[in-house]
Specification:
Structural class: alpha+beta
Strand content: 25-35%
Protein name: MoaD/ThiS family protein
Distance between the termini: 50 Å
Pfam families: ThiS
Organism: Bellilinea caldifistulae
Order of helices and strands: EHEHEEE
Strand order of the largest sheet: 2-1-5-3-4
InterPro entries: Beta-grasp_dom_sf, Mopterin_synth/thiamin_S_b, ThiS/MoaD-like
Number of domains: 1
CATH architecture: Roll
Shape: globular
Length: 102
């Protein structure tokens, strides 16, 4: 039984830089339950791409490391910093992964 359209959202996750290299593709289209949070999406990404953990995703798999962020629908002015906020159906999340070192 498939979920009713109102019970789910479809988003595109675009990868840049190191995230694109690890994912092996520039973007994926994913369906999530309506109300999914950015934190839950990060947990899902950690499961799908475990090599991102510790490099792009925090070790606890609940947030991105400080130098990485989601940009929503190409709007640099509105990055997703609140992990308990939710994307909307049709949103395009760009995972900007900035490699840092020291």
């Amino acid at each position: 039984m498939s979920a009713l359209p109102s019970d789910s959202i479809r988003i595109t996750i675009e990868f840049t830089n190191l995230a694109k290299y690890i994912a092996g593709k520039p973007a994926i289209e994913v369906e999530f339950p309506r109300g999914v949070t950015f934190g839950q999406i990060i947990e899902w990404l950690a499961e799908q791409y475990p090599d991102m953990v510790g490099i792009i995703i925090q070790e606890d798999r609940k947030a991105l490391l400080n130098s990485n962020l989601f940009i929503i629908n190409g709007e640099m002015a509105q990055p997703a910093f609140q992990m308990d906020d939710s994307p909307q159906d049709g949103d395009r999340l760009t995972l900007v992964a900035v490699a840092t070192g020291g």
